[in-house]
Amino acid sequence: MMVCKEFIDRHTDYLDGTLAAGERRRFDAHLEDCRSCRRYQRVMTRGLAAWRALPRVTTSPDFLPRLQHRLYHVDESPKRSWRGQVGRAAAIALASAGLFTLGVSNGSQPMLVEVQLPPVMADVPQEAVAESQGSRFAGDAYVPDWFLVPFAPALDDGGGLFGQSYAVPIATSDAIVLPAERRSGQLDESR
Amino acid sequence: MDTKPNLEVSRQYAAPEEMASLGRGELKRLEDAELVTHYLGGQRFAFNEIADRYQDRLLNFIYRTIGDRDRAEDLVQETFVRVYRHLHRFDPSRKFSTWIYTIASNLAKNELRNRARNPLVLFHTLRKSWEADHRPLEFEDTAYRPDDLFRKRRVREQVEAAVAELPEHHRVVFVLRELEGKSYEEISEITGVTLGTVKSRLNRARNRFARIIAPMLD
Description:
The complex is a heterodimer of chains A (191) and B (218).
Chain A: H1 4-9, H2 11-16, H3 21-33, H4 35-52, H5 63-105, H6 126-133, E1 148-150, E2 167-169, H7 180-183
Antiparallel strand pairs in A: 1-2
Helix pairs in contact in A: 3-4
Chain B: H1 24-28, H2 32-40, H3 45-66, H4 69-86, H5 96-117, H6 119-133, H7 146-164, H8 168-178, H9 184-191, H10 195-217
Helix pairs in contact in B: 2-3, 3-4, 3-5, 4-5, 5-9, 7-10, 8-10, 9-10
């Protein structure tokens, strides 16, 4: 005895005729007895027939010419890319050869070009300088320690190449004048 | 004298010099695999015959899967471009139609996924469908009376809407089976799923389809 659930679950096999003869007879017998499954079978058959009867669409008249045009470009593109690859390889080879030649001719030393620049001369009247800066710049301009960035401190183990404390001045335009004892590097901690 | 080339059962590609040049009429009589062989043998017209043979079939398949006719035509073009590029890789032990449908099916699935991610594309598609649905009745078949026309269109709309409601992976299987008449084995190969999954998806798709259209057809 078949139940409706089995009929629905295996309906595809029944519809497509892939059931064995004995199974098919069971399905037929269930359809005879079950009104609900008969309705299901009817809706399915009519619905699928309506679906298959939908008008077929056709490609537009210019479909094949457009396709031929695209295929023509497909044929062309590998040639183009082959040429491009050869061109790129040639350019890289040329650049490498040039760099190698330069390296050999200079004995693997980097090329240094010495440029002589004329000295920069400031031409500002003394009165104007005195007026704008006042007594602040009466002494020597001094860059304080805390404005200096130590150069490679990790490598500076004391007494090595970096034993001298190299420093890069960050700001020198607004230099501050400090007393002579501080300029010598001896900080007065008591202040 | 028979000019048809002697194609072995193994369908190995013949060398170009062994190929006899065939006229278009003769190309039409060849099997798909033979056309591929001839194309690879240097006969350019063989590809035209392949395109001619499959353009409408693929268009209907993609159109019924994605629901946008213009985009479907673009995707059919793309299918042929891919076939053209990779024809030398086609395995002659496989069925050519299965191979070309696999390419078309993948393009259709990608299109549906992209559309799901891009609401603007979805909007354009819906608008196109709306415009198509609201065409005046007089442009249709005038052999029917207006009430017949109305009913016919209504059923068509319902059936199309029912298929459009199916989940993507169910719809592809449904269209391949019900529209293209593909066997379970072919659908399994095209979609890359097992035979059992094909049956299960088809059964679910049909079940859902019947439930949606039942009120209309009772």
